[in-house]
């Protein structure tokens, strides 16, 4: 009997060790638009890839999944997110969307509803969420620009989320247009990508520390 119990104990320990060895690595899902999808850049130059490399050093084992698509709106992100959550089962979700909604003149209430729905979906799947906000230039009208910026703050406050209100803040001065942006004056160039990582890093740290 003693031999049998010892054998069973050994099998249980082996099963536990095997289960632990096969435990999936935690994932950070980035859901964004062209700013996060390396638009106009060589593969591997974008801020998400640079963030992934930094995380490997400071948070070993954490995997970054970049599900960003150029031209993506909040409606598109909202429709894609359930499948992404199911496929990757991320522990963390970083949402960088909204800029294309503004470029298309979409109603702010729809954009806010989409952001809120994405947060709700990610949290329901057991993920921690953070927002990366964007701002639009004054030529959209002072009220629109102000309301657009406040929208991200409102969603973050309502859902108690970490927020970087304006991820391009460090390169937003007029003098930065030629230095840090591509010819379209919309998309950051390769030189700007390490600066974007530094800008979002405190928000990412807060997200991972929740």
UniProtKB/TrEMBL annotation:
<dbReference type="InterPro" id="IPR013830">
    <property type="entry name" value="SGNH_hydro"/>
</dbReference>
<dbReference type="InterPro" id="IPR036514">
    <property type="entry name" value="SGNH_hydro_sf"/>
</dbReference>
<dbReference type="InterPro" id="IPR051532">
    <property type="entry name" value="Ester_Hydrolysis_Enzymes"/>
</dbReference>
<protein>
    <submittedName>
        <fullName>Arylesterase</fullName>
    </submittedName>
</protein>
<feature type="domain" description="SGNH hydrolase-type esterase">
    <location>
        <begin position="30"/>
        <end position="192"/>
    </location>
</feature>
<dbReference type="GO" id="GO:0004622">
    <property type="term" value="F:phosphatidylcholine lysophospholipase activity"/>
</dbReference>
<dbReference type="Pfam" id="PF13472">
    <property type="entry name" value="Lipase_GDSL_2"/>
</dbReference>
């Amino acid at each position: 009997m003693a031999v049998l119990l010892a054998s069973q104990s050994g099998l249980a320990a082996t099963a536990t060790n095997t289960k632990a060895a096969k435990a999936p690595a935690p994932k950070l899902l980035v859901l964004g638009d062209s700013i996060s999808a390396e638009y106009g850049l060589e593969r591997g130059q974008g801020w998400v890839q640079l963030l992934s490399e930094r995380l490997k050093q400071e948070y070993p084992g954490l995997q970054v999944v970049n599900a960003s698509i150029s031209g993506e709106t909040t409606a598109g992100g909202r429709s894609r997110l359930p499948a992404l959550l199911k496929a990757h089962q991320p522990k963390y979700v970083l949402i960088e969307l909204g800029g294309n909604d503004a470029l298309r003149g979409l109603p702010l209430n729809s954009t806010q509803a989409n952001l809120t729905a994405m947060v709700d979906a990610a949290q329901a799947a057991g993920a921690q969420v953070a927002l990366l906000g964007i701002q639009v230039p004054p030529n959209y009208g002072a009220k629109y620009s102000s309301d657009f910026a406040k929208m991200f703050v409102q969603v973050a406050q309502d859902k108690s989320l970490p927020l970087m209100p304006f991820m391009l803040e460090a390169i937003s001065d007029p003098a930065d247009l030629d230095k840090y942006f591509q010819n379209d004056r919309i998309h950051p160039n390769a030189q700007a990508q390490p600066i974007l990582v530094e800008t979002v890093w405190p928000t990412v740290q807060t997200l991972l520390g929740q």
